[in-house]
Amino acid sequence: MDSSMLPALIVEGFPGRCISRQNRTLAITLLALNCFFLASRPEFSLAQERAATMAARNVWGPAELPSPEVQAKVRELIDTVSVPEVVLDLDPRRSKIISTKWPVTRVSVTDPQILEVVQFSPTEFELIGGVTGQTSLTFWFGALNGKGRMLRYLVRVSPNEAIEDRRKIEYRELEKKINALFPNSAVQLFPVADKLIVRGQARDAEEAAQILAVVRGQAPDQPGLGGGRLNQGPAARPFPGTSDLPPSDIVNLLLVTGEMQVMLKVRVAELSRTALREMGSEFNIDAGDFTFDSFLSLGLPIRALLDSNDVRFLLEALSTNSYGKILAEPNLVTLSGHPAYFIAGGEFAVPTVVGVEGVGAVSTSFRGFGTQLTFTPTVLDKDRIRLVVASSISSLNEENTVEGIPGLDTRSVATTVDLREGQWLAIAGLLQDQQTGSKIRVPILGDIPILDMVFSRKEVRREETELIILVSPELVHPLEAEQAPLILPGMEVTEPTDSAFYFFGAYEGRPDCHHRSTVWPVHQRRLCEARCRAKRQAQYQKCESYYFQGTHGFSR
After folding, report:
1. Alpha helical stretches, state H, 204-267
2. Could you give the percent of the chain with pLDDT greater than 70?
3. Are 163 and 171 in contact (CB under 8 A)?
């Protein structure tokens, strides 16, 4: 081998960025031989010496150059170093037969897992690919003219595409069955790496869930659209029992056509009526040594009193009627499969005493009241919508106050229903009629008609409550800019002027009068200043007409 070829061989055959342990050993030997040729051929050029040095630095790095002693040992012991000369590509699914012209005495394979060599005769060999990778193959031939020869291959085994082809074939068959089972949907299955891409278009969310249930393996049930999740678990084997394909994870890219934004309309209506009738009396007789008292009064501010020196009689009667009405209509919009929450109301503080072994501290928590709505819609079949609804209406009840903390009157419901778009359903209703009565009396005398007015206290109360909660879903889409409403609630409510408020008793102004009490004093002062300037200007122009003749001054 010509010594001038060694630096180029080192640079081309062993790049510094991808060198194995075996190649590094070969490179060390080549560098030592190069030094030997440099010593024996003084005519070796400076450029070739620089190329050899750069090649050595690519192999070992600046701190790994061999010492002169090692180089001398290599020159003394090593004759030649052979590298792979021919590249041979091999498909693991198909072997290759090599027939030589000369008998082969020895065969060497660097990595038997990558390449397997089967020898049929001294001149016939079969090469079988194993795992994907690269390895070297060396043949030693018999003596030719008294001198043996050697041939080295760099064998590159490509990836095994048989499994990938089987996955495509088997999942294609599964795809045909799914499209035949769901003719209103178009489904495509694409195996990619360790994933199975499920893409296409489903008729509705329910059919999308059924398609994924067919494709999915033995895994817990999940929602059809996965709540926006792409990963849907492991995929099922297309042919169970006969298929040994590696496991695949499903990536859901199914699309569901139609409007996917749902607006829920809720109507909560309640009417309560209360009637109360009370009657009581207070009776006192003082006849010398005999005194008779009966205190069965109600303590009301309206009384009928008969008073003399010996007899004092007090009669009280009261009749009360009251009603209460609640009408709430919250609306809420969200995407199919996503929950939404709405609250309109307030919170009040609830102190809580906590402590250990007599040492107490007060912590404060807040409890909400008002109108609350939570729902999760799922579009199942074009306009059929499944609703998971939880609605609550609460108001403060001062009658149930405990240590300054008010109580709550609450009406709540939680349910799951299926409705078509625009349909209304009463998900909850209440018809309640409560009646109570009591009578406190003097024995015997309080049971006699007419006399019981004097010797008893009576009370009758009746409460009637009617409650109904209605829901209705509607598929909606955003409005264009020109479709948005121009007048919103409250835009026509204005503030009254000073004269309308103080003299006419108005607490709301006219829609066409936009009075602002915050800036009215400043604006009024500026108007006065403008009027004064206008008057001075008029007086000045009147003076001009007396003293000047002809065209003059500013134009009017």
Report:
1. 205-215
2. 72
3. no
298 closest CA partner among 468, 507, 457, 136 = 457
237 and 421 in contact (C-beta within 8 Å)? no
Burial 38-70 (b: 16+ CB within 10 A, else e): eeeeeebeeebeebbeebbebbbeeeebbeeee
**CA–CA gap between residue 218 and residue 265 (Å, rounded):** 39
What are the helix and strand counts (H, E) for the chain?
8, 22
The C-alpha atoms of residue 509 and residue 246 are separated, in whole angstroms, by 77
Could you give phi then psi for residue 461, rounded to 5 degrees? Answer: -130, 140
pLDDT tens-digit readout, 525-546: 888 888 888 887 777 666 666 6
Q: Which residues of 174-190 are buried (b: 16+ CB within 10 A; e: fewer)?
A: bbeebbeebeebebbbb
pLDDT category, 395, cuts 50, 70, 90?
A: confident
* The two three-digit tokens of residue 236, written as one number: 């099922």
C-beta of residue 333 within 8 angstroms of C-beta of residue 289: no
Structural contact between residues 331 and 316, judged by C-beta atoms closer than 8 angstroms: no
Q: How far is CA 162 from the centre of its chain?
A: 40
264: left (phi over 0), alpha (psi -120 to 50) or beta: beta
Distance (Å, whole) CA 525 – CA 513? 19
- Cα–Cα distance for residue pair 351/330, rounded to 1 Å: 31
Cβ distance 408 to 369 under 8 Å?
Answer: yes
CB 274 within 8 A of CB 323: yes
pLDDT of residue 222: 47
Of 219, 224, 235, 220, the C-alpha closest to 170 is 235
- Rounded Cα distance, 139 and 290, in Å: 143
Sheet arrangement for strand 96-99: 96-99, 124-129, 115-121
Whole-number Å distance between alpha carbons of 148 and 80: 14
Structure tokens at 260: 């996917």
Counting every residue, how long is the chain?
556
Asked if 262 and 476 count as a contact pair (C-beta separation under 8 A), the reply is yes
Which residue would you say has higher pLDDT here, 345 or 275?
275
